[in-house]
């Protein structure tokens, strides 16, 4: 124990570790600081778009940031160009989003077919759609433009279950007097359902809280019904249950904010592993500083194990701290699953960090230069972060499971954590083609339906951490025989 | 008892260079065993394997019966290592680094550490970073590290290299003191004359193989082949006298006599009896060097 504490102290106080910790603190501060309407440099802004024709084209932008908050002050621009630009000059207009995040741009034209370029500029991000074909439609008709969000339901989950409605009315597409009914269906046992709210829609952007139900919301199916004034159902959207409350990316963006941040941390966790692994092992090995230690009364495996753990511990602490700050910043989840969700995210990041730490250790055995080890590991992280979508299918198919293209696309698998999660999920689900259903795998805990509870998912995460850690250590110990 | 190398072989990955081939010898308690060989002969590899820093592909090293591969902790408690190059973290400070080593070594009393720092002249450098130390100071740091466990055997790799005269004397005294205390020392060196003054036996390695182990008798019984005679104003008569013992080459201040087996005492007696003022008589060839060259050239 004394030896481990000595190793831990040396690792944590190494310049590379301190720089890594400062990097983490800085990024968490940047992510969580309320530095602007978009919620910080990483917030970005997105928008849903619809237009109608009423003596001119009227474009409605619904602007919100990555956490689903409206972005007042964002500037929306529209430029219309006709097919014959030599005879018909381009026309356009702009508007600024109000407190509710809605910007309405009116471009008065009297003839029909145009190609529109719409540009949204918020403080930190610019989004552009070019070549959007627009045409005159009967007054009152709403046409929904391109975007990643449902024409009716947009939303966010975060840790405060809440739905944002974009474009109901008045002023939106639903007639005055429409009502939104939110219902939770819990398949049990025992099966129960409850109506969470029934609220008249009164503006283009409305918030509805999902809290107040005694049912476990994140294990329940959430149904949203837009009911017209005559009692008919205008639109229905059902969010399937997820034991970790991660809901589909398609249609409304429940869980998207969560996904974006997990993706970011999924990329960052390996960088932390590089920093701590460099301090604990790659650099000492590069300068041969481990040799006098190996000559002392200790074993090679003990040295390796202590160094690995002395890097894993601060890495786990740093990702844990970051996760808590990042995902609890909006307050705890009212139905009590917030802690499980945060723990699962933390576990997945620790798992990914442990794996990358193993990679750093393994590379350090083959390559003497610690800088080269760090560079290669960072390159691998970037590669996995951006090119892994094809890899997921390959990995899953090698184990006899064939996730559908829709599943892959919907899941937006783009970091190693999610790759691991999907593989584990496919394995435990035992699903053949079409494989993983088109449901999200934003977080490692997006377990298949056959897994009964969040607890099981969490146990899998913990088990995977252990298995990977032990595996990488044994591999590293084996490779050590090939050097020196 | 002792440090026993049993058929130790080692190849280096990835080009599979054979560093050691079935190397077997033993170091006894209380003896100084020299380890000589050309560059790349495998001396450093043998020592690194002997202290557990490197792993053999086959064979085993036993320390007082403890196999190093299976009973590393028990074996390493009996071993100390002074590497040829500094292998300490260059950014670490001297005293914290030694305290860290001491913790890993199972605990060393602070008073012992202070004593070692004082004895080896590092007390005033205890807050200095390793990279700022001179080569000699870093070697002293390695010696202190090797002494942390108060080992029964010391494996020293080119321990005299790059040291100033004062440090050479200090290390020489240390080696003698440790041998006097019953410690066995394996001492690799290119300085065969220095080694010849210490070693009880000398192991000659060549291309990873043990060629021969020489004992004191081998070293002392070598015939003398070169003698330098210091006689100011050596005249023709003197040169003729010396020619009876071998080929004479006149040099400033005297002559050099070369032969297959020169009887050095007889030269001295003859010069004195002839009334020639003799200022010095030095055996110039080195028995160990000669023997080493013969062995290595023969093996090549």
Helix content of chain B: 25-40%
Distance between the termini of chain A: 27 Å
Round the mean pLDDT of chain A to the nearest integer and report it: 65
What's the count of strands of chain A?
Answer: 15
Key descriptive features of the protein:
heterodimer; A: alpha+beta; Immunoglobulin-like; four-stranded antiparallel β-sheet; elongated; B: 300 residues; alpha/beta; Rossmann fold; Alpha-Beta Plaits; 14 strands
What does this structure look like?
The complex is a heterodimer of chains A (484) and B (300). By secondary structure, chain A is of the alpha+beta class. Chain A folds into 3 domains: 2-31 and 255-482, no CATH class; 38-147, Immunoglobulins (Immunoglobulin-like); 149-241, Immunoglobulin-like, CATH 2.60.40. Chain A has helices at 2-13, 15-32, 256-286, 291-294, 300-327, 338-366, 370-398, 405-411, 416-429, 454-479; strands at residues 45-53, 57-65, 75-81, 91-96, 102-107, 114-121, 126-134, 143-144, 153-156, 162-166, 179-186, 192-200, 205-209, 221-227, 233-239. In chain A, strand 14 and strand 15 form a beta hairpin. Chain A is elongated and about 85 Å long. The model of chain A is unreliable at 34-44, 146-161, 242-260, 330-337, 402-416 and 422-460 (pLDDT under 50). Chain B has helices at residues 43-51, 72-76, 94-104, 110-119, 135-147, 165-180, 192-198, 216-220, 236-243, 264-273, 287-299; strands at 3-12, 17-27, 32-36, 58-63, 66-67, 79-82, 153-157, 184-188, 201-206, 209-215, 226-230, 247-251, 254-258, 280-283. Chain B folds into 2 domains: 3-220, 3-Layer(aba) Sandwich (Rossmann fold); 226-284, Alpha-Beta Plaits (2-Layer Sandwich).
């Amino acid at each position: 124990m004394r030896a481990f504490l000595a190793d831990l102290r040396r690792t944590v106080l190494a310049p590379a570790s301190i720089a890594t910790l400062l990097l983490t603190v800085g990024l968490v501060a940047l992510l969580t600081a309320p530095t602007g309407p978009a919620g910080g440099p990483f917030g970005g802004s997105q928008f849903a778009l619809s237009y109608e024709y009423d003596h001119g084209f009227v474009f409605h932008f619904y602007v919100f940031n990555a956490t689903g908050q409206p972005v007042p002050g964002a500037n929306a621009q529209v430029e219309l160009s006709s097919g014959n630009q030599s005879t018909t000059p381009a026309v356009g207009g702009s508007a600024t989003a109000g407190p509710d995040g809605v910007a309405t741009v009116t471009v008065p034209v009297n003839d029909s077919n145009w190609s529109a370029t719409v540009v949204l500029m918020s403080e930190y991000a610019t989004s552009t759609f070019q070549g959007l074909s627009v045409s005159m439609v009967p007054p009152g008709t709403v046409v929904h433009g391109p975007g990643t969000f449902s024409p009716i339901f947009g939303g966010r989950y975060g840790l405060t279950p809440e739905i944002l409605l974009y474009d109901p009315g008045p002023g939106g597409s639903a007639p005055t007097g429409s009502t939104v009914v939110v219902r939770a269906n819990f398949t049990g046992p025992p099966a129960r359902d409850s109506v969470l709210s029934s609220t008249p829609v009164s503006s283009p952007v409305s918030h509805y809280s999902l809290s107040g139900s005694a049912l476990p919301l994140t294990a329940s199916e959430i149904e949203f019904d837009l009911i017209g004034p005559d009692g008919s159902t205008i639109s229905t959207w059902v969010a399937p249950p997820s034991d970790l409350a991660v809901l589909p990316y398609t249609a409304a963006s429940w869980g998207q904010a969560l996904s974006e941040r997990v993706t970011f941390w999924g990329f960052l966790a390996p960088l932390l592993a590089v920093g701590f692994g460099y301090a604990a092992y790659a650099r000492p090995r590069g300068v041969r500083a481990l040799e006098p230690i190996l000559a002392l009364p200790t074993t090679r495996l003990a040295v390796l194990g202590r160094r690995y753990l002395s890097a894993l511990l601060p890495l786990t602490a740093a990702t844990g701290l970051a996760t808590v700050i990042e995902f609890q910043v909006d307050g705890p989840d009212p139905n009590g699953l917030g802690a499980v969700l945060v723990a699962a995210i933390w576990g997945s990041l620790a798992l990914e960090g442990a794996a990358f730490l193993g990679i750093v250790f393994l590379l350090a055995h083959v390559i003497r230069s610690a800088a080269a080890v760090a560079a290669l590991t960072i390159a691998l992280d970037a590669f996995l972060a951006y090119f892994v979508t094809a890899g997921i299918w390959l990995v899953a198919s090698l184990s006899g499971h064939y996730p559908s293209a829709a599943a892959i696309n919907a899941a937006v698998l783009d970091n190693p954590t999610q790759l691991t999660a999907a593989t584990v999920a496919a394995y435990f689900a035992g699903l053949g083609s079409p494989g993983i259903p088109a449901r999200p795998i934003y977080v490692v805990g997006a377990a298949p339906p056959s897994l009964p509870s969040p607890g099981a998912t969490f146990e899998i995460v913990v088990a995977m951490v252990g298995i990977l850690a032990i595996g990488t250590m044994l591999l590293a110990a084996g490779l050590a025989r090939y050097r020196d | 008892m002792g440090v026993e190398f049993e058929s130790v072989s080692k190849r280096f990955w990835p080009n599979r260079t054979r560093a050691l081939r079935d190397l077997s010898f033993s170091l006894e308690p209380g003896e100084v065993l020299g380890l000589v060989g050309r560059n790349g002969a495998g001396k450093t590899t043998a020592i690194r394997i002997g202290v557990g820093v490197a792993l053999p592909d086959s064979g085993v090293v036993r320390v007082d019966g403890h196999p190093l591969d299976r009973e590393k902790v028990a074996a390493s408690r009996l071993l100390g290592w002074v590497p040829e190059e500094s292998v300490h973290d260059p950014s670490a400070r001297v005293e914290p680094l030694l305290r860290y080593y001491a913790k890993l070594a199972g605990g060393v009393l602070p008073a012992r550490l202070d004593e070692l720092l004082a004895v080896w002249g590092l007390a005033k450098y205890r807050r200095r970073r390793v990279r700022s130390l001179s080569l000699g100071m870093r070697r002293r740091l390695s010696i202190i590290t090797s002494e942390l466990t108060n080992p029964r055997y010391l494996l020293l790799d080119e321990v005299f290299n790059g040291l100033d005269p004062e440090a050479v004397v200090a290390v020489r005294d240390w080696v003698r003191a440790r041998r006097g205390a019953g410690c066995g020392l394996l001492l690799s060196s290119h300085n065969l004359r220095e080694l010849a003054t210490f070693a009880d036996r000398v192991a000659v390695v060549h291309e990873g193989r043990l060629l021969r182990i020489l004992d004191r008798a081998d070293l002392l019984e070598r015939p003398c082949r070169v003698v330098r005679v210091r006689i100011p104003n050596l005249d023709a008569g003197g040169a003729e006298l010396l020619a009876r013992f071998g080929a004479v080459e006149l040099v400033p201040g005297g002559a050099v006599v070369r032969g297959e087996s020169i009887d050095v005492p007889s030269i001295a007696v003859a010069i004195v009896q002839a009334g020639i003022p003799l200022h010095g008589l030095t055996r110039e060839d080195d028995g160990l060097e000669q023997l080493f060259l013969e062995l290595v050239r023969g093996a090549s």
